[in-house]
Amino acid sequence: MAELLALQRRFAGALLDADAAGQPETWLCGDAQLIEQRLAIYRGNVLAATTKALGAAYQVIRQVVGATFFDGLAHAYQRQVPSASGDLAEHGAGFADFVAEFPHTASLPYLPDLARLEWAVHVAYGASDAPAWQPNALAQLAPARQSDIRFDWAAGTAVVDAGYPVAHVWRIHQAGFDGEFKVDWSVRESALVSRDGLLVVVSTLLAGEGCFVASSLAGATMGASAERALAADPGFDLGQLLGRLVASHAICGFSIDKEGTP
Amino acid sequence: MKTLSDMVVGIGLRQPHYREVFEHRPALGFLEVHSENFFLDGGASMHALERARAAYPISLHGVGLSLGSADDALAQRHLAKLKRLVDRIEPALVSEHLSWSGLGGQHFNDLLPLPHTHEVLALLVQRVDRVQNLLKRRILVENVSAYVQYRERDMSETALLDELARRSGCGILLDVNNLYVNAVNFGFDPIACLDELTPAAIGEMHLAGHTEVDSCLIDTHGARVSDAVWALYEAACRRLGPKPTLIEWDTDLPALEVLLGEAATAGAVAARTAEVCCG
């Protein structure tokens, strides 16, 4: 296997850097010029595959910055965080951090938040289907016990706390949006990403609401989460929020410890 | 698990065609997808695949397993995902490529060619054994189009595939377009390659279009099957028997009826050869 390993290392080196190809005419047929032409095909294929995958995960960003600039971002990202999987759905997890540091996107300060939102949408798209449940069971619980419940959340549910109105930016770029194509950049909002059946939904959360959902997603009881939410926003309306979360199937069940369990 | 009859033709199941396929249910022997597009826990894509599975046999065609990597860094995770998909979908066919895609934890997401040597053959037998033991089924291994050739070479690609099938019990997915593209790019006789293959080992054939760029044929999977490839397909059917055949079209997708037209042509060619085939 040693020979194959050496050969593949050389090939990999040639793919990553045209100048590092060494003397490929010693291990590939043809003259140096022909080989370089052919290796370029493979280099192109690699970039095309990862760029396409990144574009599929970050469709709104691609629209916002334009295809040409996005391709440049994708190429730079692939150089910095090369694909590490045959499953291209995994490529792009670090894109938010990348655009936060990349000098040429500094003039788009909302881009990292938008990237975080888009990745959460991408993850939610392929997340497990939520089980069906009976929300009546919640109402049937004795009021004294309700604060002890822990909610079950649909797989892929996430809160994206952003400094910019990225949920709104995301929504106005969706096919079929026919509202005003306009953003109020002074608004700061949290976004909730969740699955409603097969559909990924992005909705806006007020400050206390984001706090509640994040706390509950982390495993805290309803009571503890509501306390934290009220501390962040005295106007927090638990009933209103729960109504929306149950109706949209973001919440898909609950559990409660046995009486007397701490 | 149902096996496919030899005379069936299939097409790739692609997202722009979902609605039409589900609504009109064209008469097809099977649908093929790239396994890696369905390494998901749930959601709309999986739902579409399961809906397709309820109506058609499914062929899972992998592009990312990298059977021929000298190091094994990425295989275990990838295989686990593939196994989960195979267990969930119960496909009629599972296939991969005679290629490598990654090294040292980096994946190139392309099908890179392997040298056709005894060393590589021995490695592939091990790797195919591992996959088949894990999936508890036979897989097919496909010949690839290559744009470079290694100086080190012990045998032809088809001879290597045939020997791999003999030693590991895997099957062969003969991509007629890839064979043609290589024959033109490297100057060999593709008919002689057909004669190196054991008919019973062939589990599926692929047909696709190619493009010429700077006097090199590129396997683009973005065009109709060329006349020369139809002729080679007919020769393959005569020598190897009709086999389940896929019309493979991955880029610049045409209307569904174009794919169905290509599928019908493949069916007609196969039927024409069926009477005169090797007994």
Describe this structure in words.
The complex is a heterodimer of chains A (262) and B (279). With 262 residues, chain A is mainly alpha-helical. Chain A is built from 12 helices and 5 strands. In chain A, the strands form 2 sheets. Chain A has a 3-stranded antiparallel beta sheet, sandwiched between helices. In chain A, strands 1-5 form a two-stranded antiparallel ribbon. Chain A is elongated, with a radius of gyration of 24 Å. The model of chain A has no long low-confidence stretch (mean pLDDT 94). Chain B is an alpha/beta fold. Helix content of chain B is 41%, strand content 19%. Chain B contains 9 helices and 12 strands. Chain B has an 8-stranded parallel barrel, surrounded by 4 helices. A two-stranded antiparallel ribbon of chain B has the order 5-6. A two-stranded antiparallel sheet of chain B has the order 10-11. In chain B, a hairpin with a 2-residue loop joins strand 5 and strand 6. The radius of gyration of chain B is 18 Å and the shape is globular. The model of chain B has no long low-confidence stretch (mean pLDDT 95). At the A-B interface, helix 1 and helix 2 of A face helix 2, helix 3, strand 5, strand 6 and helix 4 of B.
Summarize the structure.
The complex is a heterodimer of chains A (262) and B (279). Chain A has 262 residues and is mainly alpha-helical.
Strand content of chain B: 15-25%
Q: Counting H and I runs of at least 4 residues, what is the number of helices of chain B? A: 9
Helix content bin of chain A: 40-55%
> How many extended strands of chain B?
12
Number of strands of chain A: 5
The radius of gyration of chain A is: 24 Å
Order of helices and strands of chain A: HHHHHHHHEEHEEHHHE
